[in-house]
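Figure 3 (text version): structure tokens given as input.
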């Protein structure tokens, strides 16, 4: 099995990520979780790794705050989009682009980081846990790890409320995959167990799109997406809504002592 490369779908994928209301929700929830955790570092210039970061939405946002970012992606097309946007920035952005699978990243080549982002990547990986463990060797003591993953239980529930019962009975497997449907969705309890095994303190746990993906097709004429965003932020950290999020965001912090040596 191979990990997903989005070269042929780069434009469509990038548009689906942040060019829609669901993308705005995703960005808002993630930043709501990240901002207070970053504040603990004060004015320190951070080293940040955006692993599988595509065109680097958060890489650019963090670089504008003065941080130093390494943006890695397996897709040359995604990185080309990133370069175009970085070059067009009004202010210089300290972002280094690395064209490689994230499994190829190493401390020897890139050093250690205060923050590692890995958003909407693990659900495309043939061996997600091992890959994440490799990334975590690059995290400094007291470093932050931001992991957003596609939630298999929400995938099931969405299929149920859509009446796709045969799909559910087949354990969410189909003969022909939809190109943008993740191949390896994860269960929340499995990822939570990973964090425990990694001795990582779980600072934040949020659902991403806990409402949007369950909205009825026909909305009132005065439907307000800004109010939807407000509700998403309000309910994204409450159960049972967290467990219904199409994605789930875990923000962890490593131990104060480096145990990787």
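Below: residues designed for each position.
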């Amino acid at each position: 099995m191979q990990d997903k490369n989005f070269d042929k779908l780069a434009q469509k994928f990038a548009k689906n990520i942040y060019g829609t209301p669901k993308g705005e929700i995703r960005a808002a929830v993630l930043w709501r979780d990240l901002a207070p955790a970053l504040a603990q570092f004060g004015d320190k210039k951070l080293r940040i790794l955006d692993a599988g970061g595509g065109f680097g939405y958060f890489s650019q946002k963090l670089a504008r705050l003065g941080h130093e970012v390494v943006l890695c992606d397996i897709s040359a097309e995604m990185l080309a989009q990133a370069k175009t946007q970085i070059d067009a920035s009004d202010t210089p952005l300290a972002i280094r682009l690395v064209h490689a699978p994230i499994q190829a990243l190493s401390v020897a080549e890139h050093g250690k980081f205060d923050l590692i982002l890995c958003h909407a990547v693990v659900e495309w990986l043939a061996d997600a846990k091992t890959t994440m463990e490799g990334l975590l060797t690059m995290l400094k003591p007291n470093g932050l790890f931001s992991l957003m993953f596609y939630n298999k239980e929400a995938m099931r529930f969405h299929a149920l409320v859509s009446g796709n019962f045969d799909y559910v009975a087949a354990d969410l497997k189909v003969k022909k995959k939809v190109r943008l449907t993740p191949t390896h969705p994860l269960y929340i309890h499995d990822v939570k167990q990973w964090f425990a095994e990694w001795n990582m303190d779980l600072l934040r746990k949020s659902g991403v799109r806990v409402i949007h993906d369950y909205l009825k097709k026909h909305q009132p004429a005065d439907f307000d997406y800004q109010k939807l965003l407000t509700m998403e932020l309000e309910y994204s950290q409450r159960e049972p809504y967290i467990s219904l999020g199409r994605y789930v965001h875990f923000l962890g912090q490593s131990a104060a002592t480096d145990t990787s040596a």
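The first helix runs from residue 10 to 18.
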